[in-house]
Amino acid sequence: MSARELVVLGTASQVPTRHRNHNGYLLRWDGEGILFDPGEGTQRQMLRAGAAAHDLNRICVTHFHGDHSLGLAGVIQRINLDRVPHEVTAHYPRSGRHFFERLRYATAYRETVALTEAPVDSDGVLATTGAYTLEARRLSHPVESYGYRLTEPDGLRMLPDRLAAHGIQGPDVGRLQREGSLRGIPLEAVSEVRRGQRFAFVMDTRLCPGVHALAEGCDLLVIESTFLDEDEHLAVDHGHLTAGQAARAARDAGVRHLVLTHFSQRYADPEEFERQARAAGYEGELTVARDLLRVPLPKRR
């Protein structure tokens, strides 16, 4: 199996800073690459991170505020310039289709790739592949916004002690897996369910049912924490989360690894986000994102 990791391209909210680029997140999932919320400067950040247009199979935009979408123009043109040979699908809120079209054709270029558009207009499954199911959930923000979730199908884990007890070894193991039984011994007797991995991406939103649905049982949750807890009134007014709110949502959902990101430029000390997340009761693995950081998905349970 190829690597599964999150490559953080940018972590700034609204405006970039000296140390933080606009948003951009590349999820490597086996042989596929899914680019989330390409803000301004994403193309350059991809270069710095060692990622290419050929790595992209999907682009998922949560909403059409500039810090989450202005990089679309450059990324799409780079996909065409490099003549990416495989299908690339773009998901975004259907209500913002006119913004997507403006960004896609913002300047003159030679269109060589048939980019597939698959707008989102309701909660539900967007795509199903052999490696994952991609779904969307509506969030609470001043403009229409959706979060995204990948779920790997459950599989089976063979149990060596039970195989040995039944005298099953070598090529017979593969035969049992293919046929479902061997010499009257069912596959279920020598295996257990291997839970598929789960990933969710939650950007600009207040607390709402969509946040909890996306986060439920995730191995890796990437979630905005624009404000610190003392500025919760600003978070509510502008449709965002605080560090404590994001951490409590992750705690209640049983998230294994929490990645906080999308920080307001008003805060100079990123460690305060971690302190407030821990104070909110989150005890799992915790990362305060920084640009060009790589975050592997946790090992299987």
Total number of β-strand segments?
18
If you compute it from the alpha carbons, what radius of gyration comes out, rounded to the nearest whole angstrom?
A: 21 Å
Q: Distance between termini?
A: 16 Å
Give the strand line-up of the largest sheet.
Answer: 6-5-4-3-2-1-18
Report on this structure.
The chain is α/β, with parallel strands linked by helices and 301 residues long. 26% of the residues lie in helices and 26% in strands. It contains ten helices and 18 strands. It has helices at residues 42-49, 66-69, 72-81, 97-104, 160-165, 171-179, 209-215, 232-238, 243-253, 271-279; strands spanning 4-10, 24-29, 32-36, 58-60, 89-91, 116-117, 124-128, 133-138, 146-151, 155-158, 181-182, 185-186, 191-194, 198-202, 220-224, 257-261, 285-288, 294-296. Helix 7 (209-215) crosses helix 9 (243-253) and helix 9 (243-253) crosses helix 10. It starts with a strand and ends in a 5-residue tail after the last strand.
List the helices and strands and how they pair.
Layout: E1 4-10, E2 24-29, E3 32-36, H1 42-49, E4 58-60, H2 66-69, H3 72-81, E5 89-91, H4 97-104, E6 116-117, E7 124-128, E8 133-138, E9 146-151, E10 155-158, H5 160-165, H6 171-179, E11 181-182, E12 185-186, E13 191-194, E14 198-202, H7 209-215, E15 220-224, H8 232-238, H9 243-253, E16 257-261, H10 271-279, E17 285-288, E18 294-296
Parallel strand pairs: 3-4, 4-5, 5-6, 14-15, 15-16, 16-17
Antiparallel strand pairs: 1-2, 1-18, 2-3, 7-8, 8-9, 9-14, 10-13, 11-12
Helix pairs in contact: 7-9, 9-10
